[in-house]
Amino acid sequence: MSELKIFFNGAMVPASEARVSVFDHGFLYGDGIFEGIRAYSGRVFKLDEHLDRLFDSAKSILLDIPYTREELVEAVCRTVRENELMDAYIRLVISRGPGDLGLDPTRCSNPSVIIIADRIALYPQEAYQHGLELAAVSTRRPAADVLNPAIKSLNYLNNILAKIEANLRGLPEVVLLNHRGYVTEGTADNIFIVREGELVTPPTNAGILNGITRQVVMELAREQLGLTCLEENITLHDLYTADECFLTGTATEVIPAVVCDGRIIGNGNVGPVTLRILKAFREYSRSSGVAAYKTGVATA
Ligand code: PXG
Q1: CATH code assigned at 257
Q2: What confidence tens digit (pLDDT) does each residue in 172-194 have?
Q3: How many Å lie between the centroid of ligand 1 and the Cα of residue 163?
Q4: Domain limit, last residue, from 120, 155, 185
Q5: Nearest CA to ligand 1 atom 10
Q6: Which residues have any ligand 1 atom within 6 Å of their CB?
Q7: Does residue 18 sit in the same domain as residue 133?
Q8: Residue 266 phi, psi (nearest 5)
Q9: Residue 165 and residue 55 share a domain
Q10: What is the pLDDT of residues 231-265, one digit of tens each?
């Protein structure tokens, strides 16, 4: 396999030569933002929505992205093309850039813009067929007025602490609660439950990242499958007693969960609503997106 080429501040650089400064505030303080994006069959899925969120995150942390939207679209597509990828995982990272040994972001004048596109590491197929076991962990999602989870920042220590709890329990994913005890999301996925045929997912003000996959699933559920989808606070009791449960995310897509904290969700099998959502999502994600190759078979 040939060496990956990384988009690095405007140039395509071999992975082994793509290095950021030890003075980059992304490294020193987690000061920066990112997006995790996927391409299916040479088409970048929901690129506009990812760029919307990226620009919103940048605005919130007063970071000036040194490229226009159009330039970033081309940079993402170019990175996919130059690595000759069809199905890809794309990581777009913008850090505050090199500064000095102090917090002050105004000391950093050149944000680092990095795009990595690699082959996608998929979850085992088994997990999609039989569903995950989850647990609620003690790590809490911070409240929006502490560190707003809506900002997709390089500060993922909260999620990593939860992931450590997951590892210690031998689980692939776990559920984080907010300071009020409501269910928020997983370490890198949003959560849905199915109750009497209706979908319920925590509202954005519960302190979650408003996932692109979450938004696509709500849209498909409402418009294509004719399902009601509510954004309501979910307690652990609601989760334990739900008919079905699934997680959504760019890497995960839609993955069923059948157990939480030893409670079997529904009858313990992947439920019919989850299966419909999974099928609709797979069809939609593989038939839309921005063509990364100029000769691509389809466009947005
Ligand atoms: N919640 C959190 C905290 C996330 O980080 C999601 C929900 C799902 O959002 P999207 O927009 O992807 O539907 C995320 C997404 C990675 C990786 O490599 C992380 C994410 C996405 C892709 C890759 O860790 N986080």
Answers
A1: 3.20.10.10
A2: 999 999 999 999 999 999 999 99
A3: 13
A4: 120
A5: 211
A6: 36, 159, 185, 188-190, 209, 211-214, 248-251
A7: no
A8: 60, -130
A9: no
A10: 999 999 999 999 999 999 999 999 999 999 999 99
